[in-house]
Amino acid sequence: MPKTIIRNDERIIDNHSKLIGYLLWFFGFLGVHRFYYGKQISGTIWLFTGGLAGIGWIVDFFLIPSMDDETDIAYWDGDIQYNVAWVLLVLVGYLGFHRLYMGKIGTGILYLCTGGLFGIGIIYDFWTLNDQINEINVTRTKSHIG
User: Fold this and answer.
1) How far apart are CA 113 and CA 28, in angstroms?
2) In 3-state terms, what secondary structure has residue 7?
3) Distance separating alpha carbons of residues 20 and 22, to the nearest angstrom
4) Rounded distance, CA 134 to CA 139, Å?
């Protein structure tokens, strides 16, 4: 369950884990931690430049707490946990378990049969997973309210 943080009388849900961020940072020269924190463009740059020759990778060690805070504010919490979906994507994305977890049964089975649509679907999910989860969580929250 996500942790609630009160900061300056503002309720913020800790929906992205710093621990997972740092574990992904360990492989940061690939930019995975930047994708996790919703920074797709710089994640792609890190992927193709080796974390800007390792310098950006080292700097990111100190930036992860602020990236985590920004992400916690930007994305809604809900039934679908960002951390679970990201761990599934990173470890077994080609099997589509992250899509099955999000309730996207059809594309989950398609990923399972095609190796994540031959890898292209995994790249797509690295770019859009936070937004996909956010959309599901917002929709479910609004359906419970209204």
Assistant:
1) 29
2) strand
3) 5
4) 8
Distance CA 93, CA 100 (A): 11
Q: For 54, which DSSP code?
A: T
For 5, list phi and psi in degrees, rounded to 5. -120, 135
Residues 6+ apart with CB under 8 A from 34: 28, 40, 42, 43, 46, 60, 67
The domain spans of the chain are 1-74, 80-146
Q: pLDDT truncated to tens, each residue of the chain (146 aa)?
A: 455 555 555 556 789 999 999 999 997 678 999 999 999 999 999 999 998 898 999 999 999 999 999 999 899 888 999 999 999 999 999 999 999 999 999 999 999 999 999 999 999 999 999 999 999 999 988 776 65
Taking the C-alpha atoms of residue 89 and residue 104, their distance in angstroms, rounded to an integer, is: 14
Residue type at position 134: N
Q: What is the pTM of this model?
A: 0.87
Which tokens sit at 82? 């960002």
Burial 79-107 (b: 16+ CB within 10 A, else e): ebbbbebbbbbbeebbbbbbbbbbebeeb
